[in-house]
Amino acid sequence: MGRKIHFTKMHGIGNDYIYIDSSLYKIGAPNAFSTQWSDRHKGIGSDGLVLIGKPTIGGADFSMRIFNADGSEAMMCGNASRCIGKYVYEKGLTREKLIRLQTLSGIKMLDLQVDVNDTVTSVTVDMGEPILDCPEQFCPKANLPEGTFVSIGNPHYVIFTDNVDCVGVLGKTLECHTAFPERCNIEFVRLNEDGSLRTRVWERGSGITMACGTGACATAVAAALTHRCGRTSNVVMDGGALHIEWRETDNHVYMTGPATFVFEGEIDIP
Ligand SMILES: N[C@@H](CCC[C@H](N)C(=O)O)C(=O)O
User: Fold this and answer.
1) pLDDT band at 46, cuts 50/70/90?
2) Pair 16, 92 in one domain
3) Closest to 17 measured CA to CA, from 60, 89, 65, 75
4) Same domain (yes/no): 104, 158
5) ipTM of the complex
6) Which of 56, 180, 182, 245 is the most buried (most CB within 10 A)?
């Protein structure tokens, strides 16, 4: 017999996901549900599905699993991490403002900024250390535009170009390029006159999205490595901006930005 489950739609500067408290429901086939529910015509409409659960390891308060719109599971999601911080605090699942989130890429610390009305206005996420080594099978001689590979829980290839709108033409081809055996998220970036970084992103498994948190971190790291910026920068994506700091003292990347509730609903599952 079918049942109804409660979901919450949230976005982080336009990167929208369906959030489900998986401690309340058993979601047997999250990959298939992500594809079905993400459909913007026949489903709820989103860039993917996020399950918020109890941690399965010590030292964490909550856990996150993130599925792209094509059903593939990712190791990490920057925008969803911030949304989870707002979700667990404002829905009363915790009173803590420092939250340890278990992800497939390790435990991430969320630092919530809360106003006098007890509303979470922004969240800073310690995204950990960037990994700059290319994947083992990466073939530098492959026919790729020049770019910088940065992994920050998931893989990104950052291309500096004046024409960031080529995301629609090149994104899919580069995501699935033979240089990236596990596919890749692709960022097209232009340095603005004010020093900010205008970025358009093609996400592995979801296509063009309005923003990508890990993509913003990868962009900032690539810009610092190539001396286009210092160690702090504002990354401006289609849906808004994130502040990124690649801290010298611990080599960690810190991402700060908002998180927003959109609506709540119920959906039938078999
Ligand atoms: N939107 C995310 C990243 C989601 C996963 C990515 N598409 C992948 O497959 O690696 C973010 O905000 O970081």
Assistant:
1) very high
2) yes
3) 65
4) no
5) 0.99
6) 180
